Records
---
Amino acid sequence: MRSSIFVKAVPLLKEKKLNIDCDAVIGFLDQHYRSGQWIYTDALHRSLKIGIVDAYEMMEVCVEAGIVEQNLQIYCPYCQRFTGIYYKTLFDIPEEVGCVHCDNVVEKPAEHAIIIYKVL
């Protein structure tokens, strides 16, 4: 069995007592995600059949463990796709963001931001 960076989160996840199967979650993360890749909590929610709140709480445990970092991505309300631009904080988001897919301008993009996680 190969080593997984996600294994460091197991004791923290068990301590939080989330409604998840820690071993299944760590196995899934280890199998599907490598350093530099993006993790969307909605994908975890669908793939692992866990609650969306549990998915976010689980990822925040991974942030605390230094496994992933939190970022923001803007969802275009016109074409229903992500704009492809990542931000570290809400303060980094400009007042308007152009969508690379439909060329519309997303006004108040912070209202369309979702949290995503980058594997370190």
Note: The chain is about 30% helix and 25% strand.
---
Amino acid sequence: MLIFEKAGRILPEQDKTNIPLEFNVPSGIEKLIIDYEYSPKLLEDEVKATKLLQKSIEKYLEPEYKAEPKVFMPVKNLITLSLDENRKYRGAAHRQANRQHHEISESFASVGFEKGEITSGEWTLVLNVHCCACEVSYHVRITGEEKI
């Protein structure tokens, strides 16, 4: 059963933010399945990547470090997931992969999430924007398996 689906864009101005996506889980669901992807994973524009890295080097590293931007290439977008169930933390998938599949049920949960009963009510999937170096497209699809 389809519970929630959303496609959207994340812009560099949203770097270092969290984007909450609220959805309702109906009663009678025994397993949640979350499929998530975003692209691009890499900032392909080398000139933009160099400028971003130079700003970061100046901001975070001492001048005597003398870091060169090329040492830190490629620049990767990183947008991870966390999940709240009825305003209670249920876990997170802070992974590098830009395509992910997670399952949560009473007897099993993908690494990072808590297994347990799937309760009905308001849930929130949060996109944790660790690095958004260029415009990123994302797609989230949440399905549920009903109790038999």
Note: The longest strand covers residues 29-39.
---
Amino acid sequence: MRCDGIELDPDQFRWVPSVLDQRGNSLFYRCIFETVSGFTTTGATILGDVEALSHCMLFWRSLTHWMGGMGVLVLLLAVIRMGGGSNMNLMRAESTGPAVSKLVPKVMHSARIVYMIYITLTGVMVVFLLAGKMPLCDALTTALGTAGTGGFGIKADSMASYSPYLQWVVTVFMLAFGVNFNAYYLILFKKWRQALHMEEVRYYLLVVVAASAIITANIYNTAVSFEENLRTAAFQVASIITTTGFATADFNLWPETSRFLLVLLMFFGACAGSTGGGLKISRILITVKTIGRELTSYLFPKSVKKIKVDGKTVEDDVVRGVHVYLAAFAVLFAISMFCLSFENIDLISSFTAVAATINNIGPGLNLVGPVENFAFFSNFSKYVLIFDMLAGRLELFPMLILVYPLTWKGVLKKGKK
């Protein structure tokens, strides 16, 4: 193996002891898993010792996060002019959340604005990390992994060995990249009132504050100071809700209340139109408002109540799409859990492994906790988790279409003609 013109000994990597490991898992499956995990910004890894990797390998792993975070197709839209309606279709394919809107009339210009904001935020983060005396290589890889909300660490303990200042910087920027990029566009053009009144962003920050406060109180006896407790809790909440996956502590050892909250945040996810994964705050918000509307209709059958977000009526097609998405998510989650049940591992490990991959988070609990990895899974289970990572990043339906019988029925008919 060669890197930067230097011959590397494969034996230095704990994750590549031979072409086949003790369970007969081919190196090919492991490489596919790691690559998909990078580009889908999941951060789940099969590496046993990341510090054994060269700087160029560490940089490449983080770069896959950065490219996958905003989306390769959005990058193409920013640099390539396309005709017809293909621009908006590509934007929808890469963007996360229940609805996609253009920032400016031309999709190409919208993509450029989004990427300029993305690059600027990444650059600002590098500056703040360097100000905290983080080495340049560490600063670049950490910023790329944070921007893409991916979470591939460059140290065995992820972010635990860095200073409190650096941990706070990463916490703030993880939350920043979990915000809907439309908010930054509004701020950029001095539309402060509209930015501050974005309902999804407000609830996103409210959930972060509430979860951080509860976990800080719940782990009060695990640190020597209140600041350390708050920093650890806030970091982990930001890491999980934005689906980044960095860690400063082994939260697998935390009390059950804290562990439950973190698992719950895995499903919440960040805002729509951000680099984060998960179900998205907007979908949860629409679902809660739909339940409220149904309860009102039971009490007042003749009432007509529209669901509104940011003062605008949510179309019935969007509401239906949210409900179908949640149903498809539940079905795929159950099937994935069934497939992993053949591994004969504990339920919490299986459940959080699926949750961590389908929501593009990375670490789970127990056998897939923050200090563990996914190398022990069989080839079959790795393929299931790879499918989940891709489905979560592409908003389910593009991957589900691939396994939908009618899709291939139509292809076969065209082939016969």
Note: Residues 1-25, 82-91 have pLDDT under 50 and may be disordered.
---
Amino acid sequence: MTLLIKNALAYIDNNFKLSDILIKDGLINSLGIAISSDGADRVIDALGKYILIPGFVDVHVHLREPGFSYKETIKSGSMAGAKAGYTTLCTMPNLNPAPDCPENLKVQTDLIERDAVINVLPFAAITKGRRGVGEVVDFSALADKAVGFSDDGTGVQTQELMKEAMEKCAALNKIISAHCEVNELLHGGYIHDGEYCKAHNHKGICSESEWAQIERDCNLAEQTGCKYHVCHISTKESVEIIRQAKARGVQVTCETGPHYLTMCDMDLQEDGRFKMNPPLRSREDMQALVEGVVDGTIDVIATDHAPHSAQEKAKGLAGSMMGVVGLETAFGVLYTRLVKAGVISLEKLIYMMSVRPREIFGLDGGRIEEGQIADLALINLDKKWIVNPDEFVTMGRATPFKDWELEGENLMTICKGEIVYEAL
């Protein structure tokens, strides 16, 4: 399909410029003012009011297939991403079978090829069985099929194992995306070991269980030259360790999630929709994360979209499974609470959600210019809406943002030149 979008405020070279965009054969064919509609199969007038951006990339999602399709499927999760303006999702490996060999990874890629409505790129496991102990996988056998390597849901527990993994990934120029968690420091905890935890007699997770492994791994990345990405950081110590490592020239990048930037442990309720791993930390931690976004220590914002069944999330903070959904609320939460509040610019948010993830993981797209792949989203910044989980496309319903009033709604998602979601 040849598609012409007229009068869009397009994100070009980190600025918004009024432009027409002609899309043909899956690519951005031309940009300019008053492009002729001759030959276009469809013309959309963006009214000089809607913004056109490179499609969002989420480098940390759980689409639950294979193995847990009662929670989410490749189809439902990718459709939720498309609704929210995402054109690429990177899927985490806590699946059954774990993608720790080409045969197991192929089970997932076959499903992706059949059912995904946008780009879905899988991570392979770091360790066999994704156990965080034992043996590392055959990285060379998986390297050309995986966007990177992760044991997400499990931290790699020994320095020796992580060093071996980093050395082998460095030789292949592949990235490790690490879930950092020291098992022996967990002590059965399930929310942050802070003020709310103590006041309500819960079991806490200490901050050191996260930052101790980040500190170890930054040192290993410095030794090995491995590209190292830290998943879902949540503590002030994590921010500072990564800040200092970057200053030393370590090839380290990191992400945090919308909930960690907008909520703290004192916002908890006795409800499973507030339970995730890592947990919501203290207000001081939240403020340090925001500062990390502002100063560039934190590179990208990823949702850690982690759907569970209603039954699995109905057992309060103590008994519910860890994980919340996040794709369909991410932009609205961040635009409302960070951009509209004057914390960061809209341009900075788009950079963190659309451009920087592609730079880190070596993905195509991210620029609105001639010849680039047409992975795009058209957004109405003025639209106000209330978060209603019953309206989600994802099969998951557990969100800490339920009933929040947000601004900014995606109207159309274009993936490889084809319209995959529309609400015009």
Note: DSSP finds twelve helices and 18 strands in the chain.
